[in-house]
Write a structure and sequence with these properties.
Helices cover about 40% and strands about 15% of the residues. By secondary structure, the protein is α/β, with parallel strands linked by helices. Belongs to the HIBADH-related family. NP60 subfamily.
């Protein structure tokens, strides 16, 4: 299952921070993972004892980080054993033990600090982004045996936290001290089947964005209701949807949802909408892609017009401006199904002119329009961890709240139509340029006789460390270019971002250079591979 891709990882039960509520439902414990300083709530059934499975796990996991985690467990167990034995010693022996244990503690603290630095830059407090591989562990408090999980699940891809762990706040140092008093160590195995995130997903954040020229944009996580925040300047800042109690369940809207376009992104989105209990009607240009979702409980729409006319809110996620226009304006298109009160949400990444034109024709028929392009890739779409950038009809944005919680971890409301398109193109411009730079560095390392793996290890220890960097380098090192984000689409986004710069006479020389490299990769037949296949444009 998609949550079963992490290898088992050692950890121990600790006391959670006072302000962190325990998830409802199945019994779980708050766990500190050895060697990473990450923390998470883990369900009891995901745990196995440490000692009986230790050798088996060491054979499976050869990674340096895993070995460091095991070393940290052993050090912890040695300390615990030492404390137990010390109780029978006389006072002079105890004094001697304390001195030596203080020395060990200093060493251990240095080791812990070094290990914590491994995850710095990969962990982002309060968000699931940039998390280093979060593998974890837990067990009943007080049972002395360490834990672990069964081996039938496939190893999880690196760098992606399980859904329940997104946006987990890392405790303060006082909590970490308290953590050291925990008695249980073990391995945590993630579940093989993803479980629905429950309502009022505490990890889903909506943000309030200032629409002024103020240098500091006002970001504010909102709980429950949406409000409008008046800033000192008197201008209105707009924020996003609602966030709810820890691991509560999402209450799906009773509105009928339509979805057009079942590509890499659309497929994961529809799957998560269905899992959270939404009523969804699907349509795709090639109808066979709908079959899987019909089996999962979706209804089949014969044309975009039919989907729009039978649903309250219809989402679309297609490839580019031409596809987005054809979908709305073409034969049996969206526009033919629009009547007063019908809602249309376009999640495609397109230019501001295209989305403004579509908004105008929808609204002219009495419809309501929201643009909501998403930042992410196929894996994040499958995991319900997309970042949603929305603009347009504010009321419609609020009506989409349960849908956005099902498909994403965060949503931003950016004001008038066109703003989300511009912001999305800028985000993807940065990402595409960075990807080309990574490929350039790896190939330069190779031709100058340097180890590409060592280059990745060095980058992962520095301030550039991120899930994106690690995964894309791994793709290149393994020669695995299975698409997570199509190369042809990142090139399209670079092209549109450069055009955006043109429209305001703003120079975009980095994006322009990167765009040329992607065009070469396309000429080398890499269009339908992952964006990391831009690497192949650099191979002589």
């Amino acid at each position: 299952g998609k949550l079963g891709r992490y290898p088992p990882w050692p950890g121990k039960i600790v006391n959670p921070p006072k302000d962190l509520k325990k998830p409802r439902g199945k019994k779980c414990f708050f766990v500190k993972f050895f060697g990473t300083e990450d923390h998470a709530w883990i369900k009891v059934e995901q745990l196995k004892p440490y000692h009986p499975h230790k050798e088996e796990m060491i054979k499976i996991n050869k990674g340096k980080r895993f070995q460091q985690a095991v070393d940290a467990v052993e050090e912890f167990l040695r300390k615990t054993k030492g404390k137990d034995q010390a109780s029978s010693h006389n006072s002079s022996e105890e004094k001697h033990r304390r001195n030596s244990s203080e020395e060990r503690g200093k060493q251990s603290a240095g080791e812990e600090k070094r290990k914590a630095s491994l995850s710095e830059g990969k962990l982002k407090k309060g968000t699931g982004e940039g998390k280093k591989r979060v593998s974890s562990v837990s067990s009943e408090r007080g049972s002395k045996s360490p834990l672990k999980r069964t081996q039938d699940q496939s190893p999880r891809k690196r760098g992606r936290p399980p859904k329940d762990e997104k946006d987990l706040t890392i405790p303060e140092s006082s909590t970490v001290k308290r953590v050291m008093t925990g008695t249980v160590a073990g391995f945590k195995w993630p579940p093989s089947v993803s479980e629905p995130v429950k309502d009022s997903d505490p990890h889903f954040h909506h943000f309030l964005l200032s629409q002024t020229e103020k240098p500091a944009v006002c970001y504010q996580a909102i709980t429950k209701k949406l409000k409008v925040c008046e800033e000192e300047t008197g201008s209105t800042s707009i924020q996003a949807a609602d966030s709810t109690a820890v691991n509560g369940s999402i209450t799906p809207t009773d509105k009928k949802i339509g979805f057009l376009g079942l590509g890499l992104m659309g497929s994961g989105i529809v799957s998560n909408l269905l899992k959270m209990g939404h009523t969804v009607t699907v349509w795709n240009r090639t109808a066979e892609k709908c079959d899987l979702f019909i089996q999962e409980g979706a209804r089949l729409g014969r044309t975009p017009a039919e989907v729009v006319s039978t649903c309250d809110i219809t989402f679309a996620c297609v490839s580019d401006p031409k596809a987005a226009k054809d979908l709305v304006l073409g034969p049996s298109g969206v526009l033919q199904g629009i009547r007063p009160g019908k809602c249309y949400v376009d999640m495609s990444t397109v230019d501001a002119d295209t989305v403004t034109e579509l908004a105008q024709v929808i609204v002219s028929r009495g419809g309501r329009f929201l643009e909501a392009p998403v930042s992410g890739n196929q894996q994040l779409s499958n995991d319900g961890m997309l970042v949603i950038l929305a603009a347009g009809d504010r009321g419609l944005y609020e009506d989409c709240s349960s849908c956005f919680q099902a498909m994403g971890k965060t949503s931003f409301f950016l004001g008038e139509v066109g703003n989300a398109a511009k912001m999305m193109l800028i985000v993807n411009m940065v990402q595409g340029s960075f990807m080309a730079t990574i490929a350039e560095g790896l190939t330069l390392a190779q031709v100058t006789g340097q180890s590409q793996q060592t280059l990745l290890d060095i980058l992962n220890q520095g301030q550039l460390a991120s899930i994106f960097l690690d995964q894309k380098c791994q793709n290149i090192l393994q020669g695995n270019f299975k698409p997570d984000f199509y190369l042809k689409y990142i090139q399209k986004d670079l092209r549109l971002a450069i055009a955006l710069g043109d429209s305001v006479n703003h120079p975009t020389p980095m994006a322009a250079a990167a765009n040329e490299v992607y065009k070469r990769a396309k000429a080398l037949d890499q269009s339908d591979n992952d964006m990391s296949a831009v690497y192949r444009a650099y191979i002589h």
